[in-house]
Design brief:
The termini are far apart. This protein is 55% helix and 18% strand. It is elongated and about 65 Å long. The protein has one domain (2-121): K homology (KH) domain (GMP Synthetase, Chain A, domain 3), CATH 3.30.300. It has a three-stranded mixed β-sheet with strand order 1-2-3. Helix 1 (2-25) packs across helix 3. It contains four helices and three strands. It has helices at residues 2-25, 60-72, 74-85, 100-121, and strands spanning 35-43, 49-57, 92-97. It is an alpha+beta fold and 130 residues long.
Length: 130
């Protein structure tokens, strides 16, 4: 349990530092083309591998370009994490696109369409207050 808390603390620190790097540290112009949000940091138990899940808001072409820029900056990010966190061994960093927000929006859109269809057919669900 102590190890798990330690991993969570380090993951939170990594998330904070990478957020700061996205704003002030990484100078790749591709990354500035869309809004990037870090949704999760997954760190292995031995602290050697770090997956950074990002959500990128923008058009599909912009998303792929931003993700390419992030992947190109992995070495720089690892070096900066090493300096900032002063760890014995800095984890290998990889950026992954988090599609959870897109999936959620898609599901909400489908539910909205179903509700409209039910209203058109006169099958409006009764409220819970009745």
């Amino acid at each position: 349990m102590v190890l798990n808390r330690r991993v969570q603390k380090v993951a939170a620190l990594i998330k904070k530092e990478i957020s700061e790097l996205l704003i002030h540290g990484i100078r790749d112009a591709r990354i500035q083309k869309a809004m990037v949000t870090i949704t999760e940091v997954e760190l292995s138990g031995d602290l050697q591998h770090c997956k950074i899940f990002v959500s990128i808001f923008g058009e599909a072409a912009q998303k792929s370009e931003v993700l390419e820029g992030l992947k190109a900056s992995q070495g720089f990010v690892k070096g900066e994490l090493g300096k900032r966190l002063k760890m014995r061994r800095t984890p290998e960093v990889s950026f992954q696109l988090d599609k959870g927000i897109e999936k959620g929006a898609s599901i909400l859109s489908i539910l909205s369409k179903l509700e409209q269809e039910r209203k058109q057919r006169g099958e409006v669900p009764s409220s819970c207050n009745d």
